Amino acid sequence: KQEVTQIPAALSVPEGENLVLNCSFTDSAIYNLQWFRQDPGKGLTSLLLIQSSQREQTSGRLNASLDKSSGRSTLYIAASQPGDSATYLCAVLGNNFNKFYFGSGTKLNVKP
Amino acid sequence: DGGITQSPKYLFRKEGQNVTLSCEQNLNHDAMYWYRQDPGQGLRLIYYSQIVNDFQKGDIAEGYSVSREKKESFPLTVTSAQKNPTAFYLCASSIGSRETQYFGPGTRLLVL
Questions:
Q1: Torsion angle (degrees, nearest 10) of CA A94, A100, A101, A106
Q2: Contacts for B64-70 with beta carbons within 8 Å, 24 or more apart?
Q3: What 3-state class would DSSP assign to B101?
Q4: In this predicted model, what pLDDT tens digit does every residue of A1-35 receive, in sequence order?
Q5: Do B40 and A98 lie within an 8 Å CB cutoff?
């Protein structure tokens, strides 16, 4: 069974700092990987989806990379802003499954 | 205005009572999902449906039931057999089972 881990569980940074969130998975036979944002008490919003054949995806200040062989993905946030404060979750879809497996998330706090 | 709606936002359950959570989507998506989220944890899959009149158990289906009689609707019933139902419940949908998932705003279930 696929296991997804996100470290650290919480992160606090000053505004303007560049930061990296980490996601690791145990089974490298994945179909795709997705990063989500969740605000307190709300649903999830999709940020980026990386197919297994891709190395990275970019959207504005966000860049997600994927290294299947090492079972890792990173989400890079440039020039962080207080509005980026939220919990960020990654989810992995395996080749043999029709369902995503989620990490427990990294709670980000960007201080003004 | 396309999207996924969940109701109610808050739901209270008494001992021995069955309760039903509503999920409706107007995105014309074939696949729909129910997840449970507990504090500090990732999402765990309860049930999913890839097409009308068909659904499969996820990782934690015990004590829950679903139906998929219409493409746009996927209600979840939390039965009295679910002994620890207090959680945040999220519904999602996608075009296909391996595509980006779009989430509703969630229902918080509390036990009286």
A1: 120
A2: B64/B34, B66/B34, B68/B32
A3: coil
A4: 889 999 999 999 999 999 999 999 999 989 999 99
A5: no
CB contact under 8 A, A43 and B43: no
A and B: number of Cβ contacts within 8 A: 54
CB contact under 8 A, B101 and A42: no
CB B50 within 8 A of CB B58: no
What CA–CA distance (Å, rounded) separates B60 from A61? 36
Q: Which residue of B has its CA nearest to A35?
A: B100
Task: Kindly report, residue by residue over A56-69, the tens digit of the pLDDT.
Answer: 999 999 999 999 99
- Which residues in A lie closer than 8 A to residue B101 (C-beta atoms)? 34, 44, 46, 91, 100
Residues B98, A32: C-beta atoms closer than 8 Å:
yes
Residues comprising chain B, all counted = 112
Q: Distance between CA A64 and CA A73 in Å, rounded? A: 7
